[in-house]
Design brief:
GO terms for molecular function: adenosylhomocysteine nucleosidase activity; methylthioadenosine nucleosidase activity. One of its GO terms (biological process) is L-methionine salvage from S-adenosylmethionine. This is Adenosylhomocysteine nucleosidase. It is a single chain. With 273 residues, the chain is an alpha/beta fold. It has one domain: 3-Layer(aba) Sandwich (Rossmann fold), CATH 3.40.50.1580. The chain contains seven helices and 14 strands. The longest helix is centred in the last third of the chain and has 18 residues. The chain is globular and about 60 Å long. The two termini are 34 Å apart.
Length: 273
């Protein structure tokens, strides 16, 4: 085998290995990594760690473009809610052509095994506000425990596909797992991140969502951003910290937002190295 053929074969094998991931992470020409957070408590610490920050405003959404260890990073302040997250994600992809998107921030606990400050790496994210009901006659009441989860249909490369949930990118997930040793404020686990325009405090409701959707935590953005990233074919991962847990009577602590940002920055540093 000639040297030229050997080099060509090695390049092909490398390309095949990368394509094994559904949305392989790649950063040609230093395409930026976008990190999303909905609120100041989920973004300000990261913005303070960037160099050469430039703020851009598009509609009602703000983006902070800078560098981390010399690599381009964009912090997207999505604002709270599913529609805000989707709009911000579209703008980020169309404007910055990112190599990857990480949606991160605070959340409420659903899994009894988890406590405040534990971090969930999203193996999947699911819109738990997407459901249908069977017919019920007038006067028979509302039975939310009987609501039935529905799929979402989106176009992927021009073809409609149905999704029950959205998988986190395998490479991003692996790097995030390998960064777990840097986190000292709680556990880092893999799990399902549930998203909806809801803030649930009824324990029976939380238990039903956890049992039905297998959720580890709930918040209001990740699945919506993941849906847009899926349509565009951009590698995506959700990372959420429990800032509160009704199950354990643990109230909201804004320090959780900083803890999550610190961890996510360590994940991004490992990615760019």
């Amino acid at each position: 085998m000639t040297k030229r053929v050997s080099v060509l074969l090695a390049a092909i094998l490398f390309a095949v290995a990368i394509m094994g991931s559904s949305h392989a992470f790649a950063a040609p020409e230093n395409r930026p990594i976008v990190i999303q957070g909905a609120m100041d408590v989920e973004t300000q610490f990261m913005i303070s760690k960037l160099a050469d920050v430039e703020e851009l405003t598009m509609g009602g959404w703000r983006f902070f473009k800078g560098t981390l260890e010399g690599y381009p990073v964009v912090i997207a302040k999505t604002e709270v809610g599913m529609t805000n997250a989707a709009a911000s994600t579209v703008l980020a992809i169309e404007t910055f052509n990112p190599s990857a998107i990480i949606n991160q921030g605070t959340s409420g606990g659903h899994d009894p095994k988890l406590h405040r400050y534990d971090i969930v790496l999203g193996t999947t994210s699911v819109n738990f506000g997407n459901f249908r009901t069977e017919h019920g006659d007038a006067g028979k009441g509302v039975k939310p425990e009987k609501w039935i989860p529905m799929t979402l249909t989106i176009n992927v490369k021009g073809e409609p596909k149905e999704f029950q949930d959205f998988k986190g990118d395998s490479h991003l997930l692996k790097v995030a797992e390998n960064t777990a040793g840097t986190y000292k404020n709680g556990k880092v686990v893999k799990g399902v991140i549930g998203s909806a325009d809801q803030w649930n405090r009824e324990l029976d409701r939380i238990d039903w969502i956890h049992a039905t959707y297998k959720t580890s935590a709930e918040e209001m953005e990740t699945a919506s951003a993941a849906q847009v990233a899926e349509a565009y074919g951009v590698p995506f991962l959700g990372i959420r910290i429990l800032s509160n847990s009704e199950i354990h009577d643990e109230g909201f602590d804004p320090k959780a937002g900083v803890y999550c940002q610190e961890y996510v920055l360590n994940v991004v540093k490992k990615l760019i190295r």
